[in-house]
Structures
1.
Amino acid sequence: MWCHQFLSSPSIITLVSHKRSQKSHQIAHSSHSPTTKSKLPMDSAQKTEEPTFEFLTKKPYAPPSWATHLNPLPSHIFSLGHFPTPIHKWNLPNLPNNTEVYLKRDDLSGLQLSGNKVRKLEFLLAEAVAQGADCIITIGGIQSNHCRATAVAAKYLNLDCFLILRTSKVLVDNDPGLTGNLLVERLVGAHVDLVSKEEYASIGSVALTDMLKEKLLSEGRKPYVIPVGGSNSLGTWGYIEAVREIQQQLQKANSVAFDDIVVGCGSGGTIAGLGIGAWLSDLKANVHAYCVCDDPDYFYDYAQALLDGLQAGVSTQEIVSIQNAKGLGYAINTTEELKFVREIAEATGIVLDPVYSGKAVYGMMRDMAENPGKWEGRKVLFIHTGGLLGLFDKTDQIAPLIKNWRRMEIHETAPRKEGIGKMF
C-alpha cells in the first residue's frame, strides 16, 4: 500500500518528469552544438533493432546425425536451461582400484528451473506452444522436482500450470504447505490439486490428468498434458540431446573417455534417452540406472515403450542395465541413506537430493564395494539430476545427524567498546 502511494504521488511524478525533460533538453542541445560531432551515422542512430537472446527462445531443432533415423523427429526446441552443464572429476572416497568417477552437473541447469526435467521440457513445451496451448497439466509426488520445473517453465512462457500432487490420505484435505518444491510452485502461481496415494494407485496418472483436462476444456481452456516426469517419447529427446552435449565436451577435453554412465531413474525418460544416445553415437558407454521406485522390470518395459515410440528398433535390455535402489520406497529414506548424503557432502562438497541421486549414488557405491572387479580401472560419469529442494522436506530426519555447531568462546579479557561492531 505504501509502495503504491509513494509511486503514485503527484509531486514525485512531476519531479521525475521535470528532470527527464531537463535531461532530454540538455541532450538535444548538446547533439546540435557545432562543437560536438556525432560518432554514429544518422541512419545507424535511428535504427531500433530488437535485441536477440537465446534464452527462452523457440528455434528449429536439428537432431544429431546418428539419430536422424528415429521417428518422429522434434521440429522445435525451447531454450530453457543453461547448457552445457559442467563435467568435473568427483573425488569420492573408497572407490575400487584405479576407478575414476566424474560428475555431470545437470543440477546446475538452472535455479528455480533445474535438474534433468529441464531437458525434457525444452521439447515438450515447444510442442505445447505449437499446438496453441494456454495451460499445462502435469502430475507427480508432493515434492516432485518435475512439477516444480514445469510450473516455472510454464510461467516463463506465459502459460498457466495445473499440478496434480500425490500425498497421504491424512493430509489430502489440508493445505500442503510451503516446504521445498511446493514453495516455488505456489509462488509462481501454479494451481495445485491434491490426490491421495490410494486414489493415485487405483485411478492412475493418465486418468487423473484426463479428468482435469476435460474439466479445463469445458471451461474453454486449451490444456496440454505432460506425463509423470515428462517421460514420453518426445521427452526422451532431452537426453538424446544430452549425449550429443557430452560428446562435444569430451572432444574439447581430449583426454578422457567414459566406460560407464550412471544415473538415478524415477520415470524412465532419462534412461531411455541416455541408453539410445550412447548406443547410437560413438560414446559407446555402458548405461547403468538405479531405480528409486517400482522395480527394474517395470522400467525395462516402460523405457521400451518410449523407444518403440521413436521406432528405435532396439531392446532396452541391450542398452541399459537397471538395478533397484528404492530402499523403503519412493521418497522414503532410511537413516543410513541420509547419513550417506551428509557424508558425501562433507567429503566432496556435492549435495545430493534424497529421492533420486542420493539413492542412486548410494546404490552405485554399494555395488562398487560388493563387486569391485566390475568397476576397477573404469572411468564413470554420474549424472546429477538435481532435486536439492527435496532436502528441505527431510530436515526433521537430517537434523539429528548434523551437530557441527557451537557457541563461540570469547575470553573475558577480549577488548570491548560499545558500538564498534556495526550490525546492519
2.
Amino acid sequence: MDDIEVPKYFICPISLQIMKDPVTTITGITYDRESIEQWLLKGKNTSCPVTQQPLSRHFDLTPNHTLRRLIQAWCTENASLGVDRIPTPKPSIDKFHFLKLVKELQHPDSKMKALRELELFAANNERNRKYMVEAGVPKAMLSFIVKCFKEDCVNGLEEALSVLFYIRIPAAEAKLFPKENHQIINSLLWILGCEFKTQLLVQTHVVLVLKTIIEAASSILLERLEPQFFEMIVGVLKQGTCWVTQQGMNSALHVLLNACPWGRNRLMMVESGAVSSLIELELGSPEKKTTELILGILFHLCSCADGRAEFLSHKGGLAVVTKRITRVSPAADDRAVLILSLISKFSATNLVVHEMLDVGTVTKLCKLLQVDCATYLKEKAMEILRSHSDQWQKFPCIKKISLTRYIQ
C-alpha cells in the first residue's frame, strides 16, 4: 500500500487519507464527510480549511457520488496490492428521523426498539448527536427516566442513560426544564439504589447526569436538597471505583462541590459522613483533578464547627492535607493551606497543635515560605506559624532560631 501512488484528488485535505464518503462544501472543496463534520462541530474555526471562506455549522454538504465511485473503482482495481475496498456509505440520518424515534418512545410496543436505535446512533458520530439534541432527545430521555421512577420500572433505563452519556445534556438545554429538576433528581437517586447487570456503567452515567442537572439548577433548588441526596452521593464515594469509573467519581465530587455554598447543605454532608469518606478517598492518592475537588469540598466543610470536628476525628485528616501541599498543583495548595488556616484559627486545641507538629504541618508550612507560590499563601502560612509558635518552640524537635527566622 505504501508503494502505491494514490491520486491526489482522492485524498481528504483534513485527514490526508483516502476519502470514504466524499462531500463538497459550498466553497467547492471536497472533504471526507467525517473529517469536515468533526472540523465544523468541534473546531472553533468554521471556515473552509482550504479556502478560509466561512462555512455553515448546519452541514451544507453535497455528496460527491461521482468521486466516490471513482475511488471505489480504484480501490477494487488495487485490492490485490493491499488496498481496502470502500463500501457505499449509508444514507445520512437527519433530525426528522430522531423526532420519529422520540414519538415511538410513547408506545409500549416500540419503546425498547427506539431506545436501542437511539443508543446506537448516539454512539456512532457527532453529527447524529447534534441532530439528537435538536430533536429534543435529551429532554425525552429525562422524561422517560422520570416515568420509569413513577412506575417503578427499570426496563430501558440502561439505554436511556447511555444515550445521555453520549450526547451529554447541553447546559443551555438543562436550564430549559427547571420545574422538572426536582423530579429528575429524585429519579436519578432512585436509580442509584437499583441493581443492573451493567452496574458500573449505570452508576457512572447517573452521576454524570446529576452533575449536569446540579450545575444548571437554580439556587432555590440547591438550597432545598434533602438529606437522602447527600447520603446517596456520599455512598458513591464510599464505594469508590468499584461502583463508578474515575470519571463518575469526579462527577460525584463536582455535585457535592456545587452544593457546598449553602450552610444547610454542608451540615447534611457532614452528617452523611462526607468528611471521612473524602479523607479516605484522598488517602488512596487519586489523580490531580480528584485531589483538587476533594480539598475544595473539605475546605467548605471545615468552615463549620461540625465539619472541623469530623475532620480532626479522622487520624489521617491533617496528615494527608499537609502532605498534598507543594505536591499536586497551585489549586490544591490553595485549598490545603486554607483548610489548615481554619483548623488553626478555630479548632487548635493542645492536641491538635501537637498533631500538626507530629504530621509535619509545621515543617511543610516553613517549606512553603521558601518556594515560589502565591504571596497570599505565604501570608496564610506565616499567620498559622505565628499563631502557635510559642507552643511549637517548646518541643525539642523544633529549633527555636529556625522557626523564629520564618515568622519574623
